[in-house]
Amino acid sequence: MSSVQVIQIGPLAPHLNSLLQQQYGAVALWEQDDALTWLQENGADARVIVTSARNGCSAAVIDALPQLQAIVSFGVGYDSIALDAARARGIQVSNTPDVLNDCVADLAFGLLMDASRRIAQGDRFVRDGRWLNGAFPLTTRVSGKRLGILGLGRIGEKVARRAEGFDMQIAYHNRRPRDGAPWRYESDLLALAAWCDYLVVTCVGGPETEGLVSREVIEAIGPKGILVNVSRGSVIDEDAMVQALENGSLGGAGLDVFRDEPRVPPALTRLDQVVLAPHMASGTVETRGAMQALMLDNLRVFLDTGKVLTPVL
Ligand code: 8YV
C-alpha cells in the first residue's frame, strides 16, 4: 500500500524542497536510510522523479519504480540520468534548457578573460601587498584572437556571439556542421585545437564526449593556448591537462567543472595560470530562479497533461 506519487532524489534550494513537499507530497529520498530499499517498499505508485543534473537518476532507481512515467530534472545536463533505462520504458525526461545559456556563456567568457588577463592573480597580488614591491607581469591580449568552440550548441553559440564583440576569429567543432551557423566549421578537433588561442568546451557530457579533449588535443592547444571548460569534467583528460599545465605544454586554463566535484586536483590550486570556479556558471539569482520555474512548470504540466514541457526524451 503506497500513495507516494513524487519522489525527490536529492536536495534543491530549501524553499523548493518545501514547495515540492507541500504541493506535491514529494518524498525526500536522500533522507531515507537505504534509498533502494525504501523505493522497493514505498515506490509502487510513484509516477514522477524530481532530480537535478547534480543528483541524477540511476537505472536502479528507475527499475525500482514500476509506475514511473517522468523524470523532471533541474539543470540542462542529463549525463547523470540513466537515459537508456528511461527510454526502454518510455519514461519522459525533462531538463531546463535555454534559460541558463546567457549566464553559462558569460562565465565561460569571464574565465577566458581571467585566464588571459590574470584578474584573479592580480587580485591576489594586490591583496598580498606585492604591488608595493613592483609591477605585475604583463598578461595576454584577448581581443582579435582565435577562439575554438567545442560543441556549438545553444550555449556555444552564446559564447561565439560574445567573442564577436571582442573581434575574435571564431571556429567550432561539432560532429556535424550546425545549420545556419555563420562561423567556420572544423571537422577535425585536433586541427581546431592547433589553430586556436582559446578552446572553450561547451559540448554535452556523458559517454559520447568522454575524454574528447585528449592528451593530443591538449598538446595541440599548446604552451600559449588556454583551455576553458563549462561543460563537464569528463570531457577532458584531466590527468593529461594537469600534467600539461604543470610542465608548460598547455598555457593556461579556466575551469568551472571537474571530474570528481567538489574535489579538484590539488596541483591546479598551486598554478597561477589556472582560474578555478566551483561549478557556478548557471549560479546567478536570475538564472537559478528561471531554472527552478521551468523545472516546476515541467512537473505541473506533466501532472496535468501527461506530457513534460521541455523533453530530453
Ligand atoms: C547546474 C549544470 O548548476 O545545468 C547543468 O547541467 O551543470 C548546472 O547548471 C547544476 O548541475 C544543477 O544541478
Describe the structure in your own words.
By secondary structure, this protein is an alpha/beta fold. It folds into two domains: 6-99 and 286-305, NAD(P)-binding Rossmann-like Domain (Rossmann fold); 101-276, NAD(P)-binding Rossmann-like Domain (Rossmann fold, 3-Layer(aba) Sandwich). Helices cover 36% and strands 14% of the residues. It is built from eleven helices and twelve strands. It has helices at residues 14-24, 35-42, 59-63, 83-88, 101-117, 119-127, 154-164, 189-195, 215-221, 238-247, 285-305, and strands spanning 6-8, 27-28, 48-52, 70-74, 92-94, 146-150, 169-173, 184-185, 198-201, 226-229, 252-255, 274-276. A seven-stranded parallel β-sheet has the order 8-7-6-9-10-11-12, sandwiched between helices. A five-stranded parallel β-sheet has the order 2-1-3-4-5. β6, α7 (154-164) and β7 (169-173) form a beta-alpha-beta unit. The mean pLDDT is 97. 2-keto-D-gluconic acid binds at residues 52-54, 74-77, 100, 282.
Please tag this protein with its features.
binds 2-keto-D-gluconic acid; seven-stranded parallel sheet; alpha/beta; 2 domains; Rossmann fold; 313 residues
